[in-house]
TrEMBL record:
Keywords: Glycosidase, Hydrolase. One of its GO terms (biological process) is carbohydrate catabolic process. The keyword Ribosomal protein does not apply. SUPFAM superfamilies: (Trans)glycosidases (SSF51445). Pfam families: Glyco_hydro_1. This is 6-phospho-beta-glucosidase. Belongs to the glycosyl hydrolase 1 family.
């Protein structure tokens, strides 16, 4: 639909940016932080590990000052479970508790809304050794951790995100890292873990609301709309399979409290159905989110499955590069879209479509907690970083949000990935997303100096005028 005039962004629109603890902080062994699964994963030679990352642990004050200069109205970061819980008699690590108070207070000082992700891929290794999410007890550990967070920070935080990209964790575990054994969990195990994570999340929604807190809490899923490769009816069925299994199957449980019928059938038919205890459905139905957060990068294009052993193509998939699944769907190319240097589809209209579909389905406010352009940015001889492709990407996506707002979708804010360069989940430090450049490479830490990219100045202007130029 073309409009004569687009709506303006709401006055209180949360213009922001995001990071996660393990990808930005470093200081992995400091102040009695415990190891997380990420710290124990295999790091391929020559690719940045997370030990120093962007050194946000030591630089957070200067970095938040830069975020204030950028004009951010909101800053999304995650809390490292392993800095907070000690799993011994002490129960909590006061230094970790203080660290996040400091970050939150620093944000508030500059009028930046702190938005907290409670868990962004970095499960404590202590729990992993006990079976991780395969072990039902992990639900109780998450609940205990959540209670500590609500008690400590509840008065200062208006937006909580429970779990970052549960669907990436379950569908693309390899994108987050590879255990030393080299073995990822089986599909059956993954869907059992999925069930436990969903229970943990529902319980946390419930306890948060019982505290009669004034803030909001929601899940954060990696969501992308899809296209069918052709007008063939079989492609349409396959595309619907994908859309359901990749996104709705997670959100239907989080929001409606029940398993999607098609997802249930898929799990049963493939003998992947998890063990579900008597009261689990009650528990799932009892926890409700106030809003939905989505991380949006790309769209997917889907063709009918051939079911002949070739649906799972040989190309490497990650959280955005889709793989086929035998008997369910095949990956197809979309000739109408560009790609980033890392092969992720660039599709701003796909964001508008994703927002519409999400709002249609659940009618809850939406917060966009990630979106961005990963590229091997380089500093030129004048010490400048001209990231024009990123500006172009962000401009188009911001326009798409404005269109979705004009359509009538309720969007609370936009927090692109990433506020500052961070270590990519599986592609090191060369793949950058930040408005602020961190001067280091995969192998050379240099001084870790901060340099504002062209996108910094551009985004600052967008925020200051509450939207794009006409
Ligand atoms: C999202 C994750 O899937 O994508 C982030 O929530 C991640 O943690 C981001 O960094 C970009 O992905 P990558 O693999 O390029 O770092």
């Amino acid at each position: 639909m073309h409009y004569q005039k687009l709506n303006s962004f709401p006055k209180n629109f949360l213009w922001g940016a995001s990071i996660s603890a393990y990808q930005a902080e470093g200081g992995t062994n400091e102040d009695e932080k415990l190891a997380s699964i990420i710290d124990k994963y295999i790091h391929p030679e020559g690719v940045a590990s997370f030990e120093v990352a962007s050194d946000f642990y030591h630089n957070y004050k200067e970095d938040i000052k830069l975020f204030a200069e950028l004009g951010l109205k909101a800053f999304r970061f995650s809390i490292a479970w392993t800095r907070i819980m000690t799993f011994d008699n002490k129960k909590v690590n006061e230094k970790g508790i203080d660290f996040y108070h400091n970050i939150i207070d620093e944000c508030i000082k500059y009028g930046i809304e702190p938005i907290v992700t409670m868990y962004h891929f970095d499960l404590p290794y202590y729990l992993e050794e006990k079976g991780g999410w395969l072990n039902r007890q992990t639900i109780d550990y998450f609940l205990e951790y959540a209670q500590v967070l609500f008690q400590e920070y509840g008065g200062k935080i208006n937006y909580w995100l429970t779990i970052n990209e549960q669907n990436t964790m379950i569908l693309h575990p390899g994108a987050i890292g590879l255990p030393v054994s080299g073995n990822l969990p089986t599909k059956k195990e993954l869907f059992q873990m999925n069930h436990h994570v969903l229970l943990a999340q529902a319980k946390v929604f419930k306890i948060y609301h019982e505290l009669s807190a004034t803030g909001n809490i929601g899940p954060a899923i990696n969501l992308t709309a899809m296209y069918q490769a052709t007008a063939a009816p079989e492609d349409a069925i396959a595309a619907h399979n994908w859309e359901t299994l990749r996104g709705w199957s997670f959100l239907d449980v989080a929001v409606r409290g029940s398993y999607n019928y098609l997802f249930e059938k898929y799990l049963q038919d493939r003998e992947l159905y998890p063990t579900i205890e008597k009261n689990d459905f009650k528990t799932l139905a009892a926890g409700k989110p106030d809003f939905i957060a989505i991380n949006y990068y790309s769209t997917a294009t889907i063709a009918a499955s051939k079911n002949d052993g070739t649906d799972e193509s040989a190309r490497a998939g990650d959280q955005q590069i889709m793989l086929g699944e035998e008997g369910v769907y095949r990956a197809a190319e979309n000739p109408y879209v560009d790609k980033t240097p890392y092969g992720w589809v660039v599709d701003a209209s796909g964001l508008r479509l994703t927002l519409r579909k999400l709002y249609d389905r659940y009618e809850l406010p939406i917060l966009i907690t990630e979106n961005g352009y990963g590229a091997p940015d380089k500093m030129d001889s004048n010490g400048e970083i001209h990231d024009i492709e990123r500006i172009d990407y962000l401009r188009k996506h911001i326009r798409a949000i404005q269109e979705a707002l004009t359509d009538g979708v309720q969007v609370l804010g936009y927090l692109p990935w990433s506020a500052i360069d961070v270590v990519s989940t599986h592609q090191g430090f060369n793949k950058r997303y930040g408005f602020i450049y961190v001067d280091r490479t995969d192998t050379d830490l240099k001084e870790l100096a901060r340099v504002k990219k062209d996108s910094f100045y551009w985004y600052k202007k967008v925020i200051s005028q509450n939207g794009l130029d006409e």
